[in-house]
Specification:
By secondary structure, the chain is an alpha+beta fold. It has helices spanning 17-32, 47-62, 90-111, 114-125, 129-140, 169-179, 185-194, and strands at 37-38, 43-44, 67-73, 79-85, 152-156, 159-163. 50% of the residues lie in helices and 14% in strands. A hairpin with a 5-residue loop joins strand 3 (67-73) and strand 4 (79-85).
Length: 200
């Protein structure tokens, strides 16, 4: 697959950096997914975050040092979490663990055995005490949601001008207003030209 996308430097042994990074990002997402778990109700608020957490639990269950979640002190002196993924075990222990999990899940799905499949998935979705402690650290280190404020280009006479906006909620709204005006003259012209041909 990597070669299809132009990565010819695929190693004969071990795993490519891209494979390692993707696995590490999934494990990290499993830890971050704890933000979407509500301890008071024991419920998950987002299914995809729950699934990422389940994958983390599957990899932790595989053991052999594949994935380790370590509580430590951060650079700021506050509690932190470090996720360690043994790169050398991805193609053996990791693939086998995920493969077995998916095989069981697909078997339950193919048999229409909702009760068994649901029981297995819920078991992996549980947040035991040690993961509740990890969740507390994740919540304490939660950062404000990132704002994606896009610039806009507009034509002023013969000159193309780049408009930028503040990295704030108001800047994000201003960016949308600039890029998607309430009335686009070209669209309005098309609408008026074709209005008579359309019935409500």
């Amino acid at each position: 697959m990597l070669r299809v996308f132009g990565h010819e430097e695929v190693p004969a042994e071990g795993v490519h950096d891209i494979v390692y990074i993707n696995w590490l990002l999934m494990v990290h997402a499993g830890v971050k997914g704890l933000e979407m778990f509500t301890p008071e109700t024991q419920a998950w608020r987002q299914a995809h975050m729950q699934a990422r957490y389940v994958i983390l639990r599957v990899l932790l269950e595989a053991g052999q040092g594949l994935v380790t979640v370590v509580n430590k002190e951060g650079a700021d002196g506050n509690p932190d979490v470090e996720v360690v993924l043994d790169r050398s075990l991805i193609s053996t222990v990791g693939k086998e663990a995920i493969g077995n999990f998916l095989l069981k899940l697909q078997t339950f799905k193919s048999l229409g055995d909702f009760a068994a499949g649901s029981t297995m998935f819920k078991a992996y979705s549980e947040v035991p005490d040690e993961m509740t402690a990890v969740r507390a650290i994740v919540m304490a280190r939660k950062e404000p949601r990132k704002l994606l404020v896009q610039p806009n280009v507009k034509l002023e006479g013969e000159e193309v001008v780049l408009q930028t906006f503040e990295n704030t909620p108001a800047g994000m709204v201003a960016s949308f207003v600039a890029r998607f005006p309430a009335e686009d003259p070209e669209l309005m012209e098309l609408y008026l030209a074709e209005k008579d041909a359309v019935s409500d």
